[in-house]
Amino acid sequence: MDAVASLDAALRLRVVPGRAEQERRYLKSDRVHLGVPVPAVRAVAKAWARDHRPTPEVALALAVRLWSTGVYEHASAGLEVLRTVKLDPVALPVLEDLLRRAHTWALVDVIAPELVGPLLVRHPEARPVLDRWVGDPDPWVRRAALLADLLELRRGRGDWEGWTRRADRLSSDPSFWIRKAIGWVARDVSKVSPAKVVAWLERAGGGLAGLSFREATRALPEAERRRLERAREVERAAAGGAGSRPVG
Question: What is the pTM of this model?
Answer without folding.
Answer: 0.93
